[in-house]
């Protein structure tokens, strides 16, 4: 029993491709259409009856499921040329198969998708094409209106149908639009008023901050001016200049901390001060 389990665990998976399931090759385009995935004729002219169409669709679907279903695909490797598909790639294809089948099995979805694929501005006829059809022709190439993103856009026949499908209610009447117009106007005015008030408050706050910064700059300028008048607390008298000169001179000497040098400076300053006092006697 253990030998069988070990042999099963180490045995290589069976390699298969589309021909093993009597299937057509997978479409080469990056975003294949449902008709490409199932190899079905979009015009449906190749099928004599609806039953024949459904029979071929279900048959192809069963074969694709046997090949790509996550629970079944683990038992074999799908090979395309010399490349083996990763599990993530097989899962992505399975999801595409499911979405394509949901479209093709439902006649209404099938017709809507066909309309999405074939609608172009070349179909426009002045005076005969409705405004909704004209809008659909002009915007058929936009991603937001693709069948995958907005299928209701292709199921609807008129603007009213589209509104009903998208919002789940009937479009408003002229009376309702007139009534709602004033409500919308009031709301717009309220929002605009709030925005204006916020802008004014922000402007006032910025003005106050500017004034505060200006006052701080003025205070700093006044302090600098006072310091310049006071020679940065060092004074400008003859005695103070002499004291600074002696201090700066001593700072450049080797023996600047000698007591004899300090005593000499004090004697010079004392004699100078005494001379200044004697002048007033």
TrEMBL record:
Pfam families: DnaJ. SMART domains: DnaJ. Residues 33-117 form the J domain. This is J domain-containing protein. It comes from Candidozyma auris. CDD domains: DnaJ. SUPFAM superfamilies: Chaperone J-domain. It comes from the Eukaryota.
